[in-house]
């Protein structure tokens, strides 16, 4: 078995992990599992693609940055896409989730997110058709780095980006007042309200972080694989499994869970075959639920 | 005559949906268990029954050529066991975990249907599934009507059984658990045990519906059991009003009428190239409809209300209604 699966696994794990951060934050702070989170990924990828197209129309063709397959337009577009996806999440919360939350039945919110997911995905299919598209059709040469592992410049850049983003979110959660408010709200909502934490603001920040990271994950999938309306929905099960494996509410846990699932998937692809990839996260999920339902870094629910 | 034939065909499909919705109503409406993997349990039933009843096929396992009734019973057993295992794994945890796990079940069932060629025929599916009254296929009208009769009888039996169950002590425990878990547990009822039972029976009903559908069309493929199916069934239950069995049946017929009608409309209005896109718009519309109903009228048409006449407490207002208004 070649060690190539380590690189593939780390990349898949980065995509899953970035999505799982949003899932775990929504779950621990807003107390529902958001089935529309995968579709934020797809919307982020398509929004970024649209902005890249707009920049291309305005400035003509722009050469990519030396070894990478993309140039500055994609970087600018990614930042705009992150903002747009954050706003989409906020808007969905305002029209739908916040109103249902006010009625107080958590599971109804889950059902609404399921309906919203279906609508969002089909809307993408309607606008862009279900045919896959790409940020770039250029083929990158993978360079050997020893131990029989090959990696492309794009892959290195995206792994670094993931590391920076995860570190950033971790610092935000532990070092800033907003982050501490988020943790307080997830640990004890009633007490957090009593000490005067601005719940509405925490909810807003949660959606924006979740949406923005989902967009990055979607764009990663777009750069390394392809863009399709179903791309996010197919990431849903791995993301949920990662969030539960890491322990609900834990950002490092979500990322570690994502990496474990990504590596397990890549290993399974080599050993069993690519068609069974999606079963890996289900098996891990079931194992966690039977053995340790609070996950690696989870705290017992009150 | 054509219209009558189409009517019978339409009603048969709608009643099979009703059966699935009845299963979901037992799980969600009566017990409060959230199942996002409905399509998976329907598929389990369809494939089990197909494997048991089709004639021997060298390309895959089985084709045991058993009678259709054995296929239906087998479907219910396998579907029920699958649901029970899912329930045992998740019902001691938060309700969201059940949702996520059932979602995973549907994904895995779809994967097995697509990839386990030896078992399921892979993407090409299974054909030559014996049809009840297959001998009448020469005269479509008679064939459709006799199928409708069978499906109606099965639906009626399941409906009456569920009505009986929901009034029985067993059903009352489920309702008590849904409304106030602590109070029910304090009366010595094991919440998890009752929920696993309800979830398993619901799964068995969904599997039976899948089997009926398979024998009605004679051919099944993985594409029949996509997440859109789960979604349709949920909309049917919510429109009809969760908690009410009659609501589940009427909601299914109504939503299927809207679905089939809008499908026919798009095929008239749009050119063939545009049809796939128009179909996705159809799903958007239904998704928005689900969200709007949840926001505006969470009880649906026949939402569950406390039975006032039986205990003579007519003055007591329905608690869930007042909660919805506030």
Give an overview of the whole structure.
The complex is a heterodimer of chains A (302) and B (326). By secondary structure, chain A is mainly alpha-helical. Chain A has helices at 4-30, 37-59, 72-103, 106-128, 153-175, 177-187, 189-194, 199-224, 236-246, 251-271, 277-291, and strands at residues 143-144, 150-151. Chain A has a single domain (4-129, 147-290), classed as ABC transporter involved in vitamin B12 uptake, BtuC, CATH 1.10.3470. A two-stranded antiparallel ribbon of chain A has the order 1-2. The longest helix of chain A has 32 residues, at 72-103. Chain B is an all-alpha fold and 326 residues long. Chain B has a domain at 2-226. The relative contact order of chain B is 0.17. The A-B interface holds A 27, 32-33, 35, 96, 99-100, 103-104, 106-108, 110-112, 114-120, 122-123, 125-126, 129-130, 233, 236-237, 240-241, 244, 275-276, 278-279, 281-282, 285-286, 289-290, 293, 301 and B 32, 34, 36, 89-90, 93-97, 99-101, 103-105, 107-108, 111, 114-115, 227-228, 231, 234-235, 238, 276-277, 280-284, 286-288, 290-291, 294-295, 298, 323-324.
């Amino acid at each position: 078995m070649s060690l190539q699966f380590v690189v593939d696994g780390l990349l898949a794990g980065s995509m899953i992990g970035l999505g799982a951060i949003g899932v775990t934050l929504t779950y621990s702070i807003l107390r529902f599992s958001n089935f529309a989170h995968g579709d934020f990924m797809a919307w982020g990828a398509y929004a970024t693609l649209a902005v890249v197209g707009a920049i291309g129309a305005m400035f003509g063709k722009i050469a990519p940055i030396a070894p990478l397959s993309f140039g500055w337009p994609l970087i600018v577009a990614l930042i705009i896409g992150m903002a747009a996806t954050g706003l989409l999440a906020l808007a969905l919360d305002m029209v739908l989730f916040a109103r249902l939350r006010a009625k107080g039945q958590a599971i109804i919110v889950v059902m609404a997110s399921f309906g919203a997911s279906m609508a969002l995905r089909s809307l993408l299919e309607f606008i862009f058709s279900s045919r896959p598209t790409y940020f770039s059709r250029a083929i990158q040469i993978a360079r050997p780095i020893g131990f029989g592992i090959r990696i492309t410049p794009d892959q290195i850049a995206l792994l670094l980006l993931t590391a920076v983003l995860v570190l950033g979110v971790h610092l935000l959660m532990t070092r800033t007042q907003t982050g501490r408010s988020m943790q307080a709200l997830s640990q004890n909502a009633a007490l957090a309200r009593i000490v005067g934490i601005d719940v509405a603001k925490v909810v807003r920040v949660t959606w924006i972080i979740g949406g923005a990271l989902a967009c990055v994950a979607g764009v990663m999938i777009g750069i390394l694989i392809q863009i399709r309306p179903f791309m996010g929905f197919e990431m849903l099960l791995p993301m949920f499994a990662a969030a539960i494996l890491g322990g609900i509410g834990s950002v490092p846990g979500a990322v570690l869970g994502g990496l474990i699932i990504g590596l397990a998937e890549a290993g399974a692809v080599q050993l069993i075959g690519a068609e069974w990839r999606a079963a890996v996260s289900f098996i891990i999920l079931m194992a966690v639920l039977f053995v340790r339902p609070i996950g690696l870094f989870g705290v017992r629910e009150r | 005559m054509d219209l009558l034939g189409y009517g019978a065909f339409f009603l048969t499909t709608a009643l099979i949906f009703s059966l699935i919705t009845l299963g979901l109503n037992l799980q969600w409406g009566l017990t409060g268990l959230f199942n996002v993997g409905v399509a998976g349990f329907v598929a389990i039933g369809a494939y089990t029954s197909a494997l048991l009843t089709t004639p021997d096929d060298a390309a895959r396992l089985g084709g045991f050529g058993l009678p259709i009734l054995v296929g239906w019973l087998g479907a219910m057993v396998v579907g029920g066991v699958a649901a029970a295992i899912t329930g045992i794994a998740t019902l001691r945890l938060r309700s969201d975990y059940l949702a996520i796990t059932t979602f995973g079940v549907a994904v895995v069932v779809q994967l097995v249907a697509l990839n386990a060629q030896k078992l399921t025929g892979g993407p090409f599916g299974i054909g030559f599934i014996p049809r009840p009254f297959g001998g009448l296929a020469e005269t479509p009208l008679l064939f459709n009507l006799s199928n409708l009769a069978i499906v109606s009888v099965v639906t009626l039996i399941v409906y009456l059984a569920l009505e009986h169950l929901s009034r029985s002590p067993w059903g009352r425990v489920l309702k008590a658990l849904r409304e106030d878990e602590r109070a029910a547990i304090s009366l010595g009822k094991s919440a998890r045990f009752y929920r696993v039972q309800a979830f398993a029976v619901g799964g068995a009903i969904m599997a039976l519906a899948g089997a009926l559908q398979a024998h009605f069309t004679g051919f099944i493929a993985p594409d029949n059991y996509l997440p859109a199916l789960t979604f349709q069934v949920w909309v049917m239950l919510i429109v009809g009003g969760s908690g009410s069995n009659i609501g589940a049946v009427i909601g299914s017929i109504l939503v299927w009428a809207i679905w089939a009608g809008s499908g026919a409309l798009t095929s008239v209005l749009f050119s063939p190239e545009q049809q796939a896109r128009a179909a996705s718009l159809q799903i958007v519309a239904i998704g928005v409809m689900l969200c709007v109903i949840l926001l505006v009228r969470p009880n649906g048409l026949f939402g569950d209300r406390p039975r006032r006449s039986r205990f003579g407490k007519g003055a007591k207002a329905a608690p869930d209604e007042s909660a919805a208004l506030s």
